[in-house]
Amino acid sequence: MSPSNRAQPGRRPGRRPQGPRRPGERGGTRPADPARLAAFEVLKAVRVDEAYANLVLPHVLGRLGLEGRDAAFATELASGTLRQQGTYDAVLAACIDRPLAKVEAKVLDVLRLGAHQVLSMRVPDHAAISTSVDLTRSKVGQGPAGFVNAVLRKVTRKPLEEWVAEVAPAREKDHDGWATVAFSHPRWVVERLAEAVGRDQVDALLEADNVPPSVTLVARPGRATVAELGGTPTPYSPFGVTMDSGSPAGIAAVAEGRAGVQDEGSQLVAIALAEAALDQPQDRPETWLDLCAGPGGKSALLAALAAQQGALLVANERQPHRAGLVLANLTDRSAGSQVEGVAGVVAGDGTRPPFKDATFDRILVDAPCTGLGALRRRPEARWRRAKADLDVLVGLQRSLLDRAIDLTRPGGVVLYATCSPVLAETKGVVEGVLEGRSDVTLEPILGTVGEVPDSAGPLDGTVQLWPHRHGTDAMFLALLRRVPEGIS
């Protein structure tokens, strides 16, 4: 039976079960439904520990023993609630007689989960309300249960479209305010995305941000083939497939580390660097650097491409624990050694890396960013980032790109990439670095990436991918070439 409305065998409505209490019960009340409990724990981890839902969810599901339909229900409940949190908060605010900031955080989590079931999932109102009350009693206490019941009953009075029409500003008078509620993005994010994609397309982009992406796999060339992975080949990356069903863990090549889960846009970043032409060919094997490598997905694809070209990759990551993840991605699990094409993994600050200038032929700067291009996969990022973060991140991005150019030999290339389309993090960073140096030029990105339609970036020769156009994360790519001093 569906987790949305389980029957309780042997129990009459309104009667308290006899015998010993089960785990999670308080005072003989019904225990929380396991799928809803899993979603609640994910929301708590995101809120308290700043966890990412897509990373913590598998652990919670495993601990609670959820599989199949229960696991799918919990996944949609947690992820969907996070995506549409802004919309639900506007609705809940209209149903509560005090500011949401004064509602206990755990109670607000339950209310958001309940609102998602009522407004966006095919869960009967009575089931959504009763299971939310059970969850409140189990995880918060008896006192707030009546409050949750009363609030969710108010939420059930209207469908989502009518609630949005009531609680959002009028679209024709304040589009960004309306979009903030209708598409559940902070207003500053709506404004920055509109600036990047254009007013005529921002609604389509915001809507795409709220559609869960399909699972995309990469076959690391020389180690796995696309045919091994099944699924549907991706339109732009020759190494990608989109899964039609099932779990990546059930695919041998993924379990063995010969393939991995990777968005097609991220695959194109690695391909663009590997395919870029070099000036002044050297009489030695090429050396490549992934300057900000954690957690290592792009490094793994780069290493495979490097091995095919007789090159060697160095992966650098500032945080030691993330450097460990990179090392794991670059390890042949069957042999227990680094995969072919890897020179080593270094834990170092990318703005002050332990490498000599003019050392590398190709460098990837996959810079830390707001992550506003990956909101489909990490919906909580929209609530975690603030407008003030931009200044800090842009300064770091410019420092990383500037240092990468120093590390590149004349004739070599640097690929600057961000998983954000925000102009301050893309056009602004590249222009700022170009203006401050006479030894670098902006090159057009050719080859596979250049063949992606409707992908022109904000600077000539750059590429900007979009969820609503290409079905990828909103990756930005710019290729810069180091030239002898004074030549540009």
TrEMBL record:
Top-rank taxon: Bacteria
Gene3D superfamilies in the cross-refs: NusB-like, Vaccinia Virus protein VP39
Listed InterPro entries: MeTrfase_RsmB-F_NOP2_cat, MeTrfase_RsmB-F_NOP2_dom, NusB-like_sf, NusB_RsmB_TIM44, RCMT, RsmB/NOL1/NOP2-like_CS, SAM-dependent_MTases_sf
Binding site residues for S-adenosyl-L-methionine: 292-298, 317, 349, 366
Chain segments carrying region Disordered: 1-33
UniProt keyword RNA-binding present: yes
Molecular functions (GO terms): RNA binding; RNA methyltransferase activity
Active site: 419
Pfam families for this protein: Methyltr_RsmB-F, NusB
GO biological process: regulation of DNA-templated transcription; RNA methylation
Ranges for domain SAM-dependent MTase RsmB/NOP-type: 191-483
Alphabetized UniProt keyword annotations: Methyltransferase, RNA-binding, S-adenosyl-L-methionine, Transferase
Keyword field contains Cell membrane: no
PANTHER family per record: NOP2 YEAST -RELATED NOL1/NOP2/FMU SUN DOMAIN-CONTAINING (PTHR22807), RIBOSOMAL RNA SMALL SUBUNIT METHYLTRANSFERASE B-RELATED (PTHR22807:SF53)
Family as reported in the entry's similarity comment: Belongs to the class I-like SAM-binding methyltransferase superfamily. RsmB/NOP family.
Functional summary from the UniProt entry: May act as RNA methyltransferase.
Protein name: rRNA cytosine-C5-methyltransferase
Species for this entry: Nocardioides luteus
